[in-house]
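Researcher: Next entry in the queue.
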Amino acid sequence: MDSKQKEAILKYWQKNGPSLLDYRLRKIYGLDVQTDWNELRKMLVDYLGGIVEVDSVIKSRTSQPFTAKCGGYNFDFIVKNYDLTKEFGFEQSDDELYMIDEVFCVIDPSGTARLYDGIEYTLFDLQHLTPTELQKKYNSQLDNMDLDEIYYELIDCVKDTIFQEITEKYGVEIGDVDVEEGKSQEFQSGLNENIGKIRKIMFS
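Model: Structure for this entry, 204 residues:
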């Protein structure tokens, strides 16, 4: 990224607010996703006041629930904890990059999923009912393989949402994410710390 590109991006941020820019804007400014991505991230963190300030902003954002809407999925989740860690810097630079790792989230089981069969299920039912029980309640034809696939799609939706809300806005990448089922009361009051652990998957 040369000085003219950086100057153009700074002007854009001053006018429109800082972000990592979408694909269209990166193309307009002649940025390469592979070679310029990390430098753009570092530039954004610096623009926002440095990693300490960015960490403070992320803590403030993660104190509130996130809403995930991906395909037919619609649910809230809470980021309960994360570790701010250093990444490797640029290959030819002493600059440092940061990521939030060991991200621990709980999902609101009252969220919903409208699947390929056109039926809207609660996430709680998809986690706890057998295919036979789902067939009786929803007249569905889901099997165990479908339920496994649905769960992984749900997890991907969580990470995509965190990427959009954290990485793209603050320049900090996302590492491993740990997902557990929460209790609906926690999302209503924010006070219930008794998490019902049903399933846990780590992914990157």
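Model: The chain has one domain: 3-203.
Researcher: Noted, moving on.
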